[in-house]
Specification:
Elements lengths: L3 H7 L2 H4 L27 E5 L12 E6 L16 E6 L6 E2 L29 E7 L4 E8 L7 E8 L5 E8 L6 E12 L2 E2 L5 E2 L5 E7 L4 E9 L3 H11 L5 H16 L2 E3 L3 H14 L4 E2 L6 E3 L5 E3 L7 E2 L3 H4 L3 H8 L1 H14 L22 H10 L6 H11 L8 H20 L3 H11 L3 H7 L20 H4 L7 H8 L1 H13 L16 H4 L3 H13 L2 E5 L4 E8 L19 H11 L1 E2 L7 E4 L6 E7 L2 E8 L5 E7 L2 E2 L4 E3 H5 L2 E8 L10 E2 L7 E2 L1
Parallel strand pairs: 24-28
Antiparallel strand pairs: 1-2, 2-4, 3-6, 5-13, 6-12, 7-8, 8-9, 9-10, 9-13, 11-12, 14-23, 15-18, 16-17, 19-20, 21-22, 22-27, 23-24, 25-26, 25-28, 29-30
Helix pairs in contact: 5-19, 7-8, 8-9, 9-10, 9-11, 10-11, 11-12, 15-16
Amino acid sequence: MATPAALTAQESPADLVDPFVGTLADFGQLSPAAVAPFGMMQLGPDTSPANHAGYDHGATTLLGFSHTRGVGVGCGGAGGDLMISLRYAGQTGPALIDKPSETARRDVPRPLRRRHPGRDGSNAGAGVLRFTLPRTGAVDLRIDPRHSYSKRLAASWGSLASDDLRADLVAGTVCDQGAYHLHTASRILVNGRPIHQRPTTDQNDLATLHIAGKAGDAIEIRTGLSTVDGRGAASVRDTEVGNKSLAAVAGETRSAWNRILGRVVPSGSRDQRALFYTSLYHVMETPVAIDDPDGRHRDNSGTVQTSPKGQTRYANWSLWDNYRTQMPLLALLQPERSADIAQSLVALYAGGKPQWSTPNEPFLTVRTEHAGIALLDMHRKGIAFDADAALAGMAADSDTLKRGTPDEQIEAAYDDWATAELARDLGRTDLAKTFTAKAQSYRPMWRSVFQTPGADGDVVKARGLYQGTLWQYRWAPIFDLPWMTQTVGRDRLLGELHHFFDAGLFNMTNEPDIQVPWMFAALGQPQPTADLVQTILTKPIAHPYTNSGKLPVPFVGRSFALSPQGFADGMDDDAGGMTAWYVFATLGLYPLVPGEPWYVVTTPAFVQSSIDLGNGRTLTIQRAGPVDGLIAQANLNGRTLPHFRVRHADLLRGGTLDITTVQNVPQLQDTGAKTPKDGASRRR
């Protein structure tokens, strides 16, 4: 008989994922929907009340199950396409969720063990929804094509037959910026057999099938999604799930998750590993593969394209949020997939790339700002794509960038810097010179607005800022850190960094300043970085900021937690932007300057982690000494890293990254230790 310890050791990475993390209210905006890695299909429950992704862990009323959703992306969310519900005929009142028996897994979520029918299942672009009848009686199966988390713009039935039910859908994408077009094809089975019925429809296009059921009957709806047409959706459905059993579909999805998550193996307690794998799971949900089995897909102009053999087209972007962390993490852990992701980004420029969504998106998308920075980063990490086409698109895109407010000027400068650097890499010295000058044109503004923030320095949205304060955006030109250091002076800049945290000006709930804890190490002080990161990973801190203002009383709690309240109040995961930060931080690495292929090294949370780099190479990250000790040394394969930096290319060779810490013994007159208002204890 296996001991409890042995059973724990046998748990796979997929077993440790908790899909309920971040699904309560506004603590992450995540969903327990079933999803395959980078899959379009996110098949999950819709509740009342709902959060941004349609489900709220605190809700007790079920509306039904829908097939798409954005992942922690704010606004009103997007998705919720093709909602399906099942009720006994004549049943009235709310469908109550049996909360004590509610469970979920990433491959076959079982969120609703209810007094009403239950369900399971999903795959990459197709999903299986199963209701099991607890008692004999007639039931009404309802399929609603007009349900949506954002604005439903159009919905029509292409085919009304239970053996091949097709819908054509158009909805506003996230924040109702632009629209996406989607096609679905469903097949309805009872106990594995087609029922050959035609549903009735009402004036709202709600389709209803009346089914005479017996106790134990399994009613399944097998659905495929396509960006092209109903034929493509049927092909996705028949190719991916076909006549496979639900157990087979779930097993394939579970195996896919184990292959991807299992490329990183951390040591640590079960809860530590569970939070790590849950975070990595959310990183690997986006972007999504949109090709039909024949390679067809639509681009962001609505034109049907075909991917070359061996390539996959991706969509579902939230780059303003995740170019900083999630894209670099994919470059490290999924380099093969990143080549297709990069080529998909290049394709966005073909018809002129808006910064948000077009009216003809192939799938729900938030925003595509800073695609050029992500492309430069991947290019410098050895990921192959059409860099010349990327450069042409990036250079043309520069003229469309907003440059009115202080934050817009910095963000445009970062894009121009990326264009200059890619041009330099490709030998286009004249273009590099032009865009370097353009990138540096923000500097007088930075000196006048940010070098000494004024009385409005801690006011959210001051001077037209999109989200955040002047103090938080002050550190945004991370690509220009050498100039910033020279302009202010290293010692003064370090002092201002300490003030930033000591005065409680840091905001972990949004992206504009999430790199700042790592800047100490980049400026030669690795200990404050180690202390801050350890605090953010493990301790409750004050979170005084929201996207629209500053709270009169800060929310105090964990930034990352293994619970439905998985993030700080108002903190979105932002399509893996925040969970990728967590993964990097636990590994003891951080891509401080996306576009430059190196990482800051700090104290890892785990004593040991191993990363499968592919081609038989493994990187082992080891910590010798206490996690909260003084960081003393970092070595890669026995070679000291004097500035606590490591190059991406050096990591890819594999070997061992050793970080040594020593026990911190407080001195009687240690006046250097500070306890800032956010709860982080740091040594200068």
